[in-house]
User: Which sequence fits this backbone?
């Protein structure tokens, strides 16, 4: 099996992937702390792209849209330890460690190499071999240890972790124009814009005079066309970054929209 994931409890997992690449779209309900043991991770947000190599540790803030592409590298699988930092755990933590600082961030947070953080996450690896259920009290200790280490090495992290605000109703047109390339369920787009699904569909129709799926497909294809024609990217790279699940579906939709295959744009360069 190319992809394997092993949970020691619902909040802590070890993943390993040995195929060509593994892509997912993210808008996690929890903050996600990731330690990349081997391989490479490329993360694409609306206005920023990050590439993380082996040994990197980074935090994906909750409710932030991103395309995540994981690659094996140097003959090693893509292997990572990930810890979900849930609002429930964080509320309990900050009840005992109060702070008033809070901000909303839309950026991935990368941490410099630090022995405290690396040793905390590395210490989890032996537990993945356990055949019995991981004791909840030990899981709580490890997660709280991570909280305390993050606060020690990053003076601003409280402002992110201590923010429990839910998305409020925001400008739908501005949000969708910025985030259309993310292949999220409509329910997730609705939540992130502070709407019920019914209200989201109604407001979308009024704003764009189109259904969400038709509008999203057109916008993604237009972006893909621009990336291939103007930025000289390859179709097998672009489809991953513009919300399509596989190359064949992308090529079919592209030809239906523009009347020619995406490879035609490459041929025109020569």
Assistant:
């Amino acid at each position: 099996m190319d992809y394997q994931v092993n949970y020691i409890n619902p909040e802590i997992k070890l993943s390993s992937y040995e195929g060509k690449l593994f892509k997912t779209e993210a808008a996690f309900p929890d903050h996600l702390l990731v330690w990349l043991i081997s391989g490479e991770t490329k993360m694409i947000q609306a206005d920023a792209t990050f590439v993380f190599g082996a040994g990197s540790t980074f935090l994906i803030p909750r409710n932030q849209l991103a395309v995540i592409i994981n690659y094996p590298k140097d003959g090693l699988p893509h292997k990572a330890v990930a810890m979900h930092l849930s609002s429930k755990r964080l509320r309990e933590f900050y009840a005992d460690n109060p702070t008033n600082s809070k901000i909303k961030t839309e950026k991935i947070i990368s941490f410099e190499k630090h022995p405290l953080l690396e040793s905390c996450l590395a210490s989890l690896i032996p537990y993945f071999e356990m055949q019995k259920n991981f004791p909840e009290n030990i899981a709580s200790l490890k997660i709280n240890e991570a909280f305390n280490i993050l606060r020690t090495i990053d003076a601003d992290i409280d402002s992110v972790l201590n923010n429990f605000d839910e998305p409020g109703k925001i400008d739908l047109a501005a949000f969708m124009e910025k985030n259309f390339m993310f292949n999220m369920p409509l329910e997730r787009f609705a939540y992130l814009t502070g709407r019920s699904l019914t209200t989201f569909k109604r407001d979308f129709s009024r704003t764009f005079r189109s259904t969400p799926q038709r509008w999203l497909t057109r916008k993604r294809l237009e972006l893909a066309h621009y990336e291939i024609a103007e930025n000289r990217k390859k179709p097998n790279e672009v489809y991953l970054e513009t919300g399509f699940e596989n190359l064949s579906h992308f090529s079919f939709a592209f030809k239906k929209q523009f009347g020619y295959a995406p490879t035609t744009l490459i041929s025109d360069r020569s």
Remarks:
- The longest helix spans residues 136-153.
